[in-house]
Amino acid sequence: MGDSLTFKIVLLGEGCVGKTSLVLRYCENRFVDKHISTLQASFLTKRLNIGGKRVNLNIWDTAGQERFHALGPIYYRDSNGAILVYDITDEDSFQKVKNWVKELKKMLGNDIALVIAGNKSDLEKHRTVSAEAAEQYAASVGARHFYTSAKLSKGIEELFLDLSKRMITEADKRGGTSTVGRKTAIVVDDDVAPKAQSGGCC
Amino acid sequence: MSDDLDYNLFWQQLQHQHGALYDVAQTNCYVICVPCTAVWAGLPLTVAVPKPIIESHILKPSPYFHGTFHSSARGKEHIEISIEDGHVVVQSPAGLDGKAALTAANVKFTAAQSVEPFKAKIMSEELFYNAQYKQFRVLVLQDTLSPVEVAAFRQQNGLGSSASSADKSKRMSRVHEFINSGGARDPLIVRKTPAAHAEFLEAFPENASAIASATNAIQAFNRGYVLVKGYLEHASRKVEMLCEQFYADLLDGNQLFSSSRDDSKVQDAIRLAAESFILDGIHTKLFSALCAIDEEADLQLHHRLAALGPLLRPDHLGIKPQFMCDLPDALKELSRLDTLRTPTEKLWCLKDTTQKIANGVAEHFAAKGRSASEAVVTADELIPLLARAIAFSAPMHWQANVEYIQHFQFTGASVPDLNFAMVSCLAAHSFLQSPPLLKMTAGLKATSPEMPRLSRGASVTAVRDVSELWSNSEPAGSGSPASGRRADLAGSSARGPGRSLSSLSRANSTHPAVALPEDALSDLLGSSSISSSSSSSSNYSSSSNSGSSSYRTYASPNAGVAALQRRSTLPTIRPPDVISTPPIARPSPSLSMRRPATNVLQSSPGDGGPDLGDFLSDTSVSSSYSSLGR
């Protein structure tokens, strides 16, 4: 009903860079009494309305521990967007972002909109990743770079808004569908009766 | 979000019938208050809401006082409105309607009420951006700000001027009651048992013909359809056609259903009920056949997991010490998987398992007196906890269940959180087979003080028995370096290669701590060196290695099984195998690793089942894990 789009966003980054805090901050609903502790933080949803378009964001958190790295493809399959999070005080976490970008580019090509988040921007005095290098790198891979602070709730809405706008643009290019990378088998079967009008979402 | 604007009469009317008001509101970033869907219950989305009601709920900021608003409705601009402590507060005891309106409506105030401001609780807020990407607020309220006007509007519309409209409204409300009683926003995820779905459909006498046709189709399917190994896609299409036909018949025969074609929420609920009815009817036939197809793989998997469960320690799985706790509810939920009849129910079971893990962790933290904010279960916690639950519950028909869900679930597959739960379970299951984990768990003792033993699952005896099986099923002369060591394990060398899996049935006995050699346990749990041809491998493995990251290739969940099948002296299964439908049950002590007994089942004439030509021409069988999110 209405002009509605659903996007899958995958959240990637090393453990302890604050990616879960970032998305929890974005998705928190201060008017809901139920505490977040009874909810899983690994899958969150957010509804946006941008210029008259209803946008449903399904945000898939991924495990940051190295031991789970190989499970990444299961999670980022069919994603419309990816948020790659690093900690501005941890150079290694930025290198991990670069690795994820390489992998995403290799596996999904340019079908996926990328955003890089330099998190913990409240710890500016402990920064080890230079702002210039991070922004240059982001530009070189076609990603937007944002500084975020889950602690201070800074930069997060801007990040998601930008990502959503880019995903909408991509969806418009595809003719208004948010579906990417789905493998559809076309089956010709003369005996198949005409199907009723399909409904449902996505 | 606890209310869906897509199905909210006020919101729909504002968007489509009062677009000019909406444009002004968003251009000027006014606050829009939307009375929740329950306020409009029983009213169709097409009923025109009077403009004054709409205007009453569009709040302009006061030019004089920050944080104070005024209604856009004519004659109500003088009433001050504020947003405080999760409520929209109107500085008038009667809301925006004024005391006079309430008096006219015979509403009497007590002395205390007459001085209290009117409050409407804010249920949720959505993020809105206008065309200039400026934010404006949309608040969903538990109540209307104009109670008298809305009450009068409700009375005038839909709730009964003529007998026929009253009857239609009552019957329609039955549909909405069914949809909303699950407490879920999305009709696709309404929690209903197949019996409840059937009851809903049977509640409308005009559905009788469609139900009779569906029942005949179910009987024909059960009587004659032949499920062929490797041709699940064909069966999937066949079952989907049955569901679609039933849905179409329901719409044809029920004017109430067909008249709400534009209401996707109602249509999805009907479609889901139809699917549930069909799948419930063919469950025994279909799921038994799937169990037969996957019997060997599932049996091996069950015993491998049953053996692994008691050996696991938190550090093997990467569970942080503070998250280590018993999760009996999650285990109990997961153990229900085999007993549920429809794929949607099974999908819900997986979702509930993940939710109960989160709940269990929260309870654990609370019991320890720790802050609830620490008990957030992220993916780093969920995967290992889920892996542990799967290992401990050692499901009997994991592969059959996965295939059943992936191939025979048509309506709810695209529901994101159900999809996420499914993917998480597959990821956790894959993690259990990962070489790093296998390496870590090799050589450990079963009586770990850190990991409580659960009643379910096999003991070390079973580990030894399975390892014997692996060593003994090595084809003669294959001569792998490990085979000699495996043969020596636990004194098994005296056993012959033809030994069946019957020894595994002794899994319930207990055994003191036994240390296993690293390679033996790795082999037992599935060799990492196996390049599986299983259909499940494609989406599980990541073989890319970029930069400094150590990407690894995981063996597929069936890699060990595939290897066992290759090593086994049992005859090779030749496609197309036609599977009989044995009863679903846990293995008896006499269970042996026999292949399914039949190669061909006869299809009854005229039963609508596939013929051999269909099977031979069907090459669209996809990876069993690639159909997620279809």
TrEMBL record, chain A:
<keyword id="KW-0636">Prenylation</keyword>
<dbReference type="GO" id="GO:0032482">
    <property type="term" value="P:Rab protein signal transduction"/>
</dbReference>
<comment type="similarity">
    <text>Belongs to the small GTPase superfamily. Rab family.</text>
</comment>
<keyword id="KW-0547">Nucleotide-binding</keyword>
<keyword id="KW-0342">GTP-binding</keyword>
<keyword id="KW-0472">Membrane</keyword>
<dbReference type="InterPro" id="IPR027417">
    <property type="entry name" value="P-loop_NTPase"/>
</dbReference>
<dbReference type="GO" id="GO:0012505">
    <property type="term" value="C:endomembrane system"/>
</dbReference>
<dbReference type="Pfam" id="PF00071">
    <property type="entry name" value="Ras"/>
</dbReference>
<dbReference type="GO" id="GO:0005525">
    <property type="term" value="F:GTP binding"/>
</dbReference>
<dbReference type="GO" id="GO:0003924">
    <property type="term" value="F:GTPase activity"/>
</dbReference>
<keyword id="KW-0653">Protein transport</keyword>
<keyword id="KW-0813">Transport</keyword>
<dbReference type="InterPro" id="IPR041833">
    <property type="entry name" value="Rab21"/>
</dbReference>
<dbReference type="GO" id="GO:0015031">
    <property type="term" value="P:protein transport"/>
</dbReference>
<dbReference type="InterPro" id="IPR005225">
    <property type="entry name" value="Small_GTP-bd"/>
</dbReference>
<keyword id="KW-0449">Lipoprotein</keyword>
<dbReference type="InterPro" id="IPR001806">
    <property type="entry name" value="Small_GTPase"/>
</dbReference>
<protein>
    <recommendedName>
        <fullName>Ras-related protein Rab-21</fullName>
    </recommendedName>
</protein>
UniProtKB/TrEMBL annotation, chain B:
<feature type="region of interest" description="Disordered">
    <location>
        <begin position="471"/>
        <end position="511"/>
    </location>
</feature>
<dbReference type="Pfam" id="PF02204">
    <property type="entry name" value="VPS9"/>
</dbReference>
<dbReference type="GO" id="GO:0097422">
    <property type="term" value="C:tubular endosome"/>
</dbReference>
<feature type="domain" description="VPS9">
    <location>
        <begin position="295"/>
        <end position="441"/>
    </location>
</feature>
<feature type="compositionally biased region" description="Low complexity">
    <location>
        <begin position="526"/>
        <end position="551"/>
    </location>
</feature>
<dbReference type="GO" id="GO:0045022">
    <property type="term" value="P:early endosome to late endosome transport"/>
</dbReference>
<protein>
    <recommendedName>
        <fullName>VPS9 domain-containing protein</fullName>
    </recommendedName>
</protein>
<dbReference type="InterPro" id="IPR037191">
    <property type="entry name" value="VPS9_dom_sf"/>
</dbReference>
<dbReference type="GO" id="GO:0005769">
    <property type="term" value="C:early endosome"/>
</dbReference>
<dbReference type="GO" id="GO:0005886">
    <property type="term" value="C:plasma membrane"/>
</dbReference>
<dbReference type="GO" id="GO:0030133">
    <property type="term" value="C:transport vesicle"/>
</dbReference>
<dbReference type="GO" id="GO:0000149">
    <property type="term" value="F:SNARE binding"/>
</dbReference>
<feature type="region of interest" description="Disordered">
    <location>
        <begin position="567"/>
        <end position="630"/>
    </location>
</feature>
<dbReference type="GO" id="GO:0005085">
    <property type="term" value="F:guanyl-nucleotide exchange factor activity"/>
</dbReference>
<dbReference type="InterPro" id="IPR003123">
    <property type="entry name" value="VPS9"/>
</dbReference>
<dbReference type="GO" id="GO:0005770">
    <property type="term" value="C:late endosome"/>
</dbReference>
<feature type="compositionally biased region" description="Low complexity">
    <location>
        <begin position="475"/>
        <end position="507"/>
    </location>
</feature>
<dbReference type="InterPro" id="IPR051248">
    <property type="entry name" value="UPF0507/Ank_repeat_27"/>
</dbReference>
<feature type="compositionally biased region" description="Low complexity">
    <location>
        <begin position="612"/>
        <end position="630"/>
    </location>
</feature>
<feature type="region of interest" description="Disordered">
    <location>
        <begin position="526"/>
        <end position="552"/>
    </location>
</feature>
